[in-house]
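dude i think i finally got it to work??
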Amino acid sequence: MFIDIAKIKLKAGKGGDGAVAWRREKYEPAGGPAGGDGGRGGDVIVMTDSGLHTLMDFRYKREYKAENGQNGMNKLKFGKDGEDIILKVPVGTLIRDANTKGVIYDLKEDNMSVTVCKGGKGGLGNARFKTSTRQAPAFAQAGNIGEEREVILELKLLADVGLVGFPNVGKSTLLSIVTSARPKIANYHFTTLSPNLGVVKIDEGESFVIADIPGLIEGASEGIGLGDEFLKHIERTGILIHVLDISGSEGRDPLEDFYKINEELFNYNERLAEKKQIIFANKMDVPGAEENLKKLEKELGDKYKIIAGSAATTKNLDKLMIETYKNLQEVDFSEYETYDKEHVEEVVKEEGIRVFKENGDYFVEGPYIDKLLRSTNFENYDSLKYFQENLRKNKVVEKLEELGVNDGGSVFIGGYEFEFFE
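look at this
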C-alpha cells in the first residue's frame, strides 16, 4: 500500500537530574559535595533512506520518544546520555509543523538527517555549586525537558519525469514498456490508486526516473476523486509527458482533455503551468487517430513538442524517451525549492519567564521557572537562597513590584503559592 502522509508526535528525552551526594571516604566523614551531572536526553532524528518508498511504517505507530538521560551519581559520576531515536523516511519527504502547516525541513537527498526535537540538557550536580561561601550545597540542578512537537510527514516523489493525463489513456502501459515497473493495467475508467515509478535507460550512464501520476480527473484540484492527494507528486518533476488518447476511443475530445488536465494543474498550483510538457499522442493504431492528430498539431504544434505513437505497439516510444532525456538536460534541478509557501526553519523554543497579574493574584511561569522549582530543596537554606537569587537575577522580583505586589501578597510560581516579602 502506498502511504504518502502521516501525522506523528515526537518527544525528545529529558536531561538527567544532577545528583546531591557527598564524599564518604574513610577518615573523611565530612567530605565535600560529590554529586555528578545528569546525562543529556536523546534527540529525535529523521533520516532519509533510498530503500523506502512509502510512509507505511508511520501508519500504525503515531508516537515516538527518545530515551531520557540518566541522573547523575555519587563520586562525581556523570549520568549516561539518552539514546537518540532515528526515524527512517523516503527521499522526498517534507516535515511540516502540524499546527502551522509550515515546512520545517525538506529532505530531498539520500542519507540526509535532521534533528527535529533536541534532547534536554543534563542538570548539574551539587559539586558544581560549591563556592568559597557555600561549602556544602545540598541541592542540584534538574535536567531540561526535551523538545516536543507534532509533525506531519508528507512524501513528494522525486521523479525526473511525470506522466499526466486522464485515466485509461495508456500511461500505465507506457510505463510498463519503457521501464521495468509493473503497474496494474486494465481497461477501466477509474484512476490508479497509487503512483508507480520506473527507471528509463537510454544508454550507458544515461537514465532518468519516470512516474505515473494517478488521480487526474476533472475537479481533481478541488478534491474530486483522489487527485488532490497525488497532484503534489508532480511538483518535484522536471518535465511532464502529457499522454492523450488521440483516437478519442472513450468518446472524449483529446484537445479538450489536454486543456482540462492543464486547468487542474494550474488550479492546484499556478507554478505547475510553468513546467515543460511533451505531448504523447497515444493510440495512433486506433481508427480516428489521424484526424484528431491533425487538429492537435494545428492547435498546439507551435507551442509543444508532439510525438505521435502507440504504447500498445511501442511505436515511437524510443523517440519519446530520447526527446524527454534531451529536454531533461536543460532542467536545473539545483534550483529546486519546495512549492510550499510557509517555512519554519527551526523548532520554535519556548523560553523565558512570564510574570503577570490576573484577578488580583500574581503569577510567574515559564520553562526556566519549572526547572528552577525542580532544582530547589526548600528544606535547605542554601538551596532556598539560590532560588531567591535566581528570581532576583532574572528580574522576577522587580517585575512583581512593577505590577504592584505588596508584602504578604500571594505569588503563584509554577503551581506553588508563595508569600511575597521584600
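Helices lie at 171-178, 227-230, 254-268, 289-300, 317-328, 367-374, 381-393, 396-402.
im so relieved honestly
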